[in-house]
Amino acid sequence: MDWPALERAVAVCDACRLARGRTQAVLGVGDRNAEWMFIGEAPGAEEDQRGEPFVGQAGRLLDSMLAAIDLRRGENVYIANIVKCRPPGNRNPEPDEAGACLPFLRRQIELIRPRLLIALGKVAATNLLGGDASIASLRGKVHSYAGTPMVVTYHPAYLLRNLPDKAKSWEDLCLARDTMASLPPRPD
After folding, report:
1. Looking at the whole model, is its pTM more than 0.90?
2. What is the secondary structure of the chain as a DSSP string?
3. Would you list the domain boundaries of the chain?
């Protein structure tokens, strides 16, 4: 499935109950040849309206996090979520909802071929890695998702409510930057 087919499939998807309440599906945004891919949880109300992930307060914080490691949204960076439709009340996606969207995310990863994945929050991390581990136990090390290195950090929305953990997130971003610097170039 190429990008246009993936976009169409996501736009008309009705594989779970989230499709009934959406304004639009939110596939992702950024450089489709990016070396960095950031994966969050789900679109919120503003993302559902605008069709782009991370556009509210959490998005502004994510942009600041990117800038701190000399990255910019859309420049060698792609941003997506585990689910493509907004869960009601901004609740966490249910396992069946995430399961319905994971084939789309897997295909995005295959098409983009990032050198490094960054899982933003527990929902993203546990859906990609499996299990139900805490963020505390997952951060600070490099994991692998389908052969691609992955670093786990806190979701920007969590950091807005828990300012002391911003220092830990900075450590994770430094780990990601150092990991990227140590990776071989992507074969073309």
Report:
1. yes
2. --HHHHHHHHHH--SSTHHHH-SS----EE-TT-SEEEEES---HHHHHHT-SS-SHHHHHHHHHHHHTT-BTTBSEEEEES-SSPPGGGPPPPHHHHHHHHHHHHHHHHHH--SEEEEESHHHHHHHH-S---HHHHTTSEEEETTEEEEEE--HHHHHH-GGGHHHHHHHHHHHHHHHHHSPPPP-
3. 3-80+97-182
Look at residues 99, 87, 106 and name the one whose alpha carbon lies nearest to residue 18: 87
Residues of the chain above pLDDT 90, percent: 96
Could you tell me which residues come within 8 angstroms of residue 173 by beta carbon, excluding any fewer than 6 positions away? 65, 68, 69, 153
- Domain boundaries 3-80+97-182, CATH class: alpha beta
User: Is 187 a residue whose pLDDT tops 90?
Assistant: no
